[in-house]
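Internal ticket #5521
Category: modeling
Description: The requester needs a full-assembly model to guide mutagenesis choices. All entity lines are attached below as received. Residue total reported by intake: 424.
Assigned to: D.W.
Attached entities:
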Amino acid sequence: MSLFNIFKNGIWRENPVLVLLLGMCPTLAVTSSAKNALGMGLATSFVLAGSNFVVSCCRKFIPDQVRIPCYIVIIATFVTIVEQLMQAYAPPELNQTLGIFIPLIVVNCIVLGRAEAFASKNGALASLLDGLGMGLGFTLALLILGGLREFIADGSLFELQIFTNWQGIYLLKTATGAFFALAFILAVMNQRKINRCRKEGLTYEAPPELSCRSCNICKLGK
Amino acid sequence: MPDIVKFCLSLGLICAISGGGMAFVNQITSKPRAEAQIEQRNNLLKLVLPPETSQCQELESLEKVQFFAAKNENDQLVAYAAEGSSRQGFGGELKVLVGLSPEGRILAVLVSQHSETPGIGTEVCERKQKQSLWKVLAGKAESDPFPANAFLDSFAAQLLPQGVKADAVSGATLSSKAVQDAVNSVAKAWREKFAAGITEEP
């Protein structure tokens, strides 16, 4: 796979939220507004690219049997260092807007999932690009969900009021509403894929490299 | 070499390097971090104190609650401010800044530091301003330095010595309780400060 394809892969075809369904916890919790979604997405992208790079550099020294604890230690260290550097040197506005998302990233399964599924098997540059692509895909998915929820609940986007007399649905602001919104987005996406296949006279199947049998994270199929 | 020794050594080595790296970064950033925090606190203090304040002076701290005295140009006391904290938040420590009139009536409450979940707990922590998109596009937007927050504003005008109450916000109960707990820590320190008679006359 070319480097550009690796980068592009995470944005749409293997989008971590909409296709791989990874990182649901922050996805549902922080997407109550488009601004929060963007903040979470950008902070995760940065950490994802950085931790992918570090894990890929260390992959030759880590024995296979203890790799997961090693990755967790590396990711947690990276996140802690980023948080402290940000508190010390970043402009206060940036620290205030992005700083609250950092503690949520340590336990984000996209970061661990990409370290395990990609960075542990590929070179440093490819891993960095994979992290960036996945991060952008995550940001995009969060923005769609956050924008939709904020618009329906408040009639605003990025805290800018678009309609003044908007009869908002408060449900969309709660975590329950996040489940509903995500389910509708996924349903629309799946229906599109199924329709496209039906036009060609085929039945839709998930790509083989995305199915449970070929995934190597939990090794269920082996 | 048996495998188990190899695993222990490599995991131990990674932990040692990580620990060393974190200790090093902690060491070099501890001073700038503290400075950035004080600078941010001073900026926020201006928001909770009345506009006629010209200088703000640090008083002694009592049970981890730091008091400040605000004076006007004629060196008269116009208000107090206090920073209280609570560890009952959803994500650890939460700090509030409270502006107080000299008799202990709450002027304004602001959450100065927290790690609540964005979008859920932050509903009771953040003062956000909503502007109309059309006004922003027309260039007529006015930015309000101290936007309203129904929960934080419900503390205003309560008398501190009697203890404070506010109704928790649904969906953010824990964070609401933590804010209330932090304001109550200020109330407790205030009672002790004045009961013990250690107040310093400005």
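Resolution: model delivered.
Comment from assignee: The mean pLDDT of chain A is 85.
Ticket closed.
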